[in-house]
Give the backbone structure.
Amino acid sequence: MPWYNGDYPPSYKNQPKKIRDKATEIANEVLRTTGNEGEAIATGLKQARLHFKKEEQKKSISFKNL
C-alpha cells in the first residue's frame, strides 16, 4: 500500500520530518518496483538518511572552500 498525505510507516514516526518525507517518497518508488513493503520501508529510511548525510557533507565542503 503506498503512503501519501502524512500517512507513513509506523517505523518512520520518530524521524525528523525531512527524513520521514524523503523516506516515504523513496519507499513508494521501491514499493512500485518490487512490491515488497518491508523492503520498501527499510530501503526508504536507509536511503533518506544517506541522502541527507551527503547533503551535509556537501555543505561542509563548500564552506571550507570559502
